[in-house]
Amino acid sequence: MEELIPLVNQLQDAFSSIGQNASLDLPQIAVVGGQSAGKSSVLENFVGKDFLPRGSGIVTRRPLVLQLINCPTEYAEFLHCKGKKFTDFDEVRLEIEAETDRVTGHNKGISPVPINLRVYSPNVLNLTLVDLPGMTKVPVGDQPADIEHQIREMLMQFVTKENCLLLAVSPANSDLANSDALKIAKEVDPQGLRTIGVITKLDLMDEGTDARDILENKLLPLRRGYIGVVNRSQKDIDGKKDITAALQAERKFFLSHPAYRHLADRMGTAYLQKVLNQQLTNHIRDTLPGLRSKLQSQLLSIEKEVEEYKNFRPDDPSRKTKALLQMVQQFAVDFEKRIEGSGDQVDTYELSGGAKINRIFHERFPFELVKLESDEKTLRKEISYAIKNIHGVRTGLFTPDMAFETIVKRQIAQIKEPCQKCVDMVIGELVNTVRQCTQKVLLVLLLILLLYQRGGRRGMVISPHSCISLLLSLSLHPPFCLCCRGN
Fold this sequence. Notes:
Blueprint: H1 4-17, E1 28-32, H2 39-47, E2 64-70, E3 75-78, H3 89-104, E4 115-121, E5 127-131, H4 147-159, E6 164-171, H5 180-188, E7 195-200, H6 212-215, E8 226-228, H7 234-238, H8 243-256, H9 269-308, H10 317-340, H11 354-370, H12 376-391, H13 401-414, H14 416-437, H15 439-457, H16 464-474, H17 482-485
Parallel strand pairs: 1-5, 1-6, 2-4, 6-7, 7-8
Antiparallel strand pairs: 2-5, 3-4
C-alpha cells in the first residue's frame, strides 16, 4: 500500500514529460480555494519550510504538482531541472517564480502547464497535491479582463475528473456559504463524495463566534468531513517565525479552546496530512483497476498504430493520395476556424482572422464612408437639372426613372474608392490567414529536408520522393517530430 502513491508519482512525471498530464485521469488531490484562503500556508506546514511564492494578487499562476516523499535526507527536485537537488528552499521559491515567468511572462497571466516539484524530507508523509491558482473576481495590473473565467476553466480541467479528490480550503473568518472552494466543489461534486473540507484562520474569528458546527460536519456536510488548521499570520511570516513553533502553537490552540477541545485529536496540520495520506492511498487502491484497464487499452491502440508502419511502403500511391487529401482538408478546417473564431488557440494581443475582417466591415468601412463629403444643396441642384434635361420641352408630372438612375450612379461612383480599400484590407487579412494555416505544410517540408540530410550523413540512400511519402504518411497522425524521435 505504501508504494501506491510513489507509483502514481512516476506515472504523473512520465505523462507530464510528454505533455499528456492534463488529459489523463490520474488519482490525485487538487487544492482549491479563493485568494488568501491559506492554501500556501497549509502546504508549507506539511513540508515544514517556506518555499512557495507569496505576495499580493495572484501568486500561484500555474498548477504546482507537489509530491511529498518520506526520506531520511531533506532536499527538493524539479522535473524540468533533472539531476539538480535544491537544499535551500529559498532557491526553490525563486525557481518556481522563474519557471512561472518563463511560460506566463512577467505580468499576472496564468497557464495550465503544471510545474512538478518533489520534496524529500523525514518530516512528511507520502502525499501528492496539485496546488491550483486562487479564484479571483477582479483583474489587477495588466491581467486580461476575463481572468476569472480563465482561472475557472483551468480549475475545471482538474476538478471535473472523477479520480480527483478536492481539498477545499475556506477561511473561518468569512461566511462559509460564500466560500469559493465549496461553491465549485458543490458544482462538480454535488454529493460531497470527493471533497475534503479544510477550515483555516480559526484563530481570527470574531470574539464569541466559532466554527464548531462546521467542524462537526453539521453545516454543509461532506462525506469526508472537515478538518480545522491554524496557520501562521502574515506578521509571523514576515517575522520568519519557525513552522515547528507554529505547529506547536496550533496544537495548543485546539487543546485550550473551549469550542474545539473535544475535537483536538481530529484537528491540526499533522492530522490533516495523515488523513490525506490515508485518503489518497485508499483512493488510488480503489481506482487502480480502472486506470490499469485504461492504460492497457491505450497501449494496445498505440501498438496497433505502430504495427501499421512495419509494412510501410513509401511508394504506395493510395497512402500518398490519402495523406495529401487529409492535409488539404486540415488546411480547410484550420482556415474555417480562424474565420469563424473557433480555433484552439485564441490570440489575446491583437485581432486576426474573422475578428479583424468584422472590424474592417463594421468600423473601418463606415469610417471611410463618413469622410465622404456630400453637399445637399449641390445634390438638389443636380437632381433638378437632371429632371429638367430629361423632360426637355415637355413639362412632366412624374420624376423620370432615368433621372433617378443618373443621380444614383454618380453617388455610387463616389463610394468606389472606399469599397476598393475595404476589399484590399480584407484580401490582405485573408492572405495572412492562409499563411498562418500553411505553417503545418511548411513544417512538413522542413522535416523532409532534415530527414533527407540525416539520411545522407548516415550513408543511407533516401530519395526526396521517399521522404515526402514518409512524412505525408506520418502527418496523418499528428503531432509528430522526427527530430525528437531521433529518426
